[in-house]
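Problem 12. The chain below contains 370 residues. Write out its predicted structure in token notation.
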Amino acid sequence: MTVRKSWIIAIAILIGTIFAFGIISKGKQKVKKTDKKVVKVAMYKVVKNKELPLIVDASGQLKSKHTFDMYSEVTGVLKSGRKEFRTGTSFRKGELMIQIDDSEVKAQLYSQRSEFQNLITSLLPDIKIEFPEEFKKWDKYLTNFEIEKGIKPLPKLSTKKEKYFVSGKKVFTQYYAIKNLEARYAKYNLRAPFTGVVTETSLKPGGLVRSGQKMGVFSNMDSYELEVSVKASDIGYVSVGDKVIISSSDKSKVWNGDVVRINGAIDLKTQTVSVFVEAKGAGLKAGMYLDVQLESKPIKHSILLSRNILHDNTFVYLVKDSTLVEYEIHPVKFNEKSVMVDNLSDGDKLVSRNISGSFPGMKVNPKQVK
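Solution.
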């Protein structure tokens, strides 16, 4: 009896297990998924070519176009003038800037002029006898001669005989000795070569100035020059006369300029070429670091593209019949964030945003970006 009950229970458990397994298997049957293909959106812009200026970006330090390093060619004590030769002092063209005590050389100059005057006076009697027709011009020269004023050019000699006579009396020797001393005398009084400002000085009133000593730096504050380094690969786009847009580092101020010179050699270390830009305008100061955009001749039928949409820097995607088409570009010039291209056609649908997993022939849902 006990054995029979055991078999009956075992069979009931087995039947229950099979029944339960059937119910569980039926609940776990997978629902067949419907394959629904997802078509990605392609944002595009319609190409409109224009005549665009070719721009080369660079930067550099501003310097005064006319800077005069002042060195003394004579020795003497610095005298105090109406204006002190100090940093920041401005002078007009021709205004006396530096005056060195010239009393000694001045006396020497006057002495030589006096001797020369005596020499001409001693020659007049001989000239009146030997060259009576030339006496009047020499007499007039002596009458107008002033010891305290610069020596005037000698009268024009009419004949070889007169030339030999004057030369034999050492007139030329003394005349040019005075001219040489006058040139030296002028170096004791330095005048401004142009209107500008003292930007550096090492002089003090009453101090001794020695020959060869640097006295300071005088700069023109009206015209500036900016030296910028342009990549050797870009120098072919730059020409003398090109217009330049100059801006401060924070882009708050803008000035205009022109390319005035281009170095003919490439810097071997940096592989750049120096380009010199002339600049004028309020707010410019020597020593400023400025950014420049050099505008070359415009490129016809061109467009600027973001470098983000380039693939391998060689091609972009166009949309044709809701399909991506690979298109190889012809770059005119690569900039930091953009590239100028001249082989796209007006009306082309240019994909303006990258599509993940894109490939040529991929079906897309095109949407124009306005």
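Discussion. The radius of gyration is 45 Å. Students who got a different answer should revisit the alignment rule from Section 12.3.
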